[in-house]
Write a structure and sequence with these properties.
Distance between the termini: 67 Å
Strand order of the largest sheet: 3-2-1-4
Helix content: 10-25%
Number of helices: 2
Low-confidence stretches: 9-18
Structural class: alpha+beta
Strand content: 25-35%
Order of helices and strands: HEEEHE
Mean pLDDT: 75
Length: 90
Amino acid sequence: MPQAPPLAPVSTCIQTWHAIWPTVGEMLVNANTPSYFEVSNIAGVWTVSKDSAPIERHSNRAAAVLSVRDAMQVIFARGAAASWRLLREA
């Protein structure tokens, strides 16, 4: 019976989750998604930014997060990737 060829590695070492997806307060230095969103609260105004550019302002956190969710659904529907993070209150 012939033996199957050995499996070739498909990628190099995978980074840890925290290296790929930063948590609150960390810089987004290892972003590997084409679009990323940030939600921040400055003086009571919730600002939504896409790729570091402010795109919307909301009076409450829930509306800002819902806005990001809706925008990401449009991106996902195209088969693309996106991520988001909530920044600390300034």
